[in-house]
Amino acid sequence: MRIMAALAEVQLVSKVAERLHVTQPAISKQIAEIESALSAPVIYRERNRLFLTDVGQRLAAHAQAVMQQLRRAELELEALSLGASGHLRIGAVTSLSPTLVAKAVVAFKRVAPRVSISVTEGHFISLRPLLERGEVDVVVARVWQPQEVPDLEQSVLTSEPIVVVSGRDHPLAKRRRLQWSDALSWPWILPDKQSVARRAIEAFWAEQGMATPGDVIEAQSLPLSLALMCDLPYLGLFPETLALSHAMRGDLSVLGLRMGGVLAEGRCFWRKGQIEQNAVLRPFLDCLRAVPGRF
């Protein structure tokens, strides 16, 4: 069940193995056993990615529903046994706050209503010192070039693309075919120069042989970016889920440019040993991992 649910989300055996803390051969063996039991394939491969067959999609949908119910039951039982109360301090990047973090907080408050919560937004480079000093208990951030961080534990949470957006009346919003050279001739709203996100974006553009536009507004706030793009001909980057939601309301247009998976992966970080010392941290981490769809 866990394997099928994870495959539906990340589509890579390596990512599934990392999420479930097992080896890749073990995952492949389990998939083969599932297919043997069903007498039907559940996956097919294209290049380096896995895709679910019709049978696999149906099985994964049932698996995800069962896993969510089990997680919800575990959380409720854990909260009851703890009589959970206290204060949870969360650090989060702005691109994950309105989706993954918000849904996790809602789920957490339902099972631990007496715990007070504070959320500090920023980018990972600004939030990491707060985590290391114990000023926040957990940081939820997008990562670029993932690596081990001394004295911190981490867990993969999500894989969601970043997409290029504009105001709905922007000239590029009416064009079906776009090149990066078209987009980078316009002004942009970008994260702070010192942020992981900004470094990743500029490295991606450099790989395309393109330079960062000269006219840039630096802003971390997505609501501010949205307001600016409604009145100015600037382009920006939004998480896909949020971008599509605003596009459906007519606030933004999603442009047909791809970021090649840059900043798609979201992770949570916490200090080593803190789960044993902080009674409310583990239930919140479980809520993060249990968010439907994992955005």
From TrEMBL:
<dbReference type="InterPro" id="IPR000847">
    <property type="entry name" value="LysR_HTH_N"/>
</dbReference>
<keyword id="KW-0238">DNA-binding</keyword>
<dbReference type="GO" id="GO:0005829">
    <property type="term" value="C:cytosol"/>
</dbReference>
<dbReference type="InterPro" id="IPR036388">
    <property type="entry name" value="WH-like_DNA-bd_sf"/>
</dbReference>
<protein>
    <recommendedName>
        <fullName>HTH lysR-type domain-containing protein</fullName>
    </recommendedName>
</protein>
<dbReference type="GO" id="GO:0003677">
    <property type="term" value="F:DNA binding"/>
</dbReference>
<comment type="similarity">
    <text>Belongs to the LysR transcriptional regulatory family.</text>
</comment>
<keyword id="KW-0804">Transcription</keyword>
<dbReference type="GO" id="GO:0003700">
    <property type="term" value="F:DNA-binding transcription factor activity"/>
</dbReference>
<dbReference type="InterPro" id="IPR036390">
    <property type="entry name" value="WH_DNA-bd_sf"/>
</dbReference>
<keyword id="KW-0805">Transcription regulation</keyword>
<feature type="domain" description="HTH lysR-type">
    <location>
        <begin position="1"/>
        <end position="53"/>
    </location>
</feature>
<dbReference type="InterPro" id="IPR050950">
    <property type="entry name" value="HTH-type_LysR_regulators"/>
</dbReference>
<dbReference type="Pfam" id="PF00126">
    <property type="entry name" value="HTH_1"/>
</dbReference>
<dbReference type="Pfam" id="PF03466">
    <property type="entry name" value="LysR_substrate"/>
</dbReference>
<dbReference type="InterPro" id="IPR005119">
    <property type="entry name" value="LysR_subst-bd"/>
</dbReference>
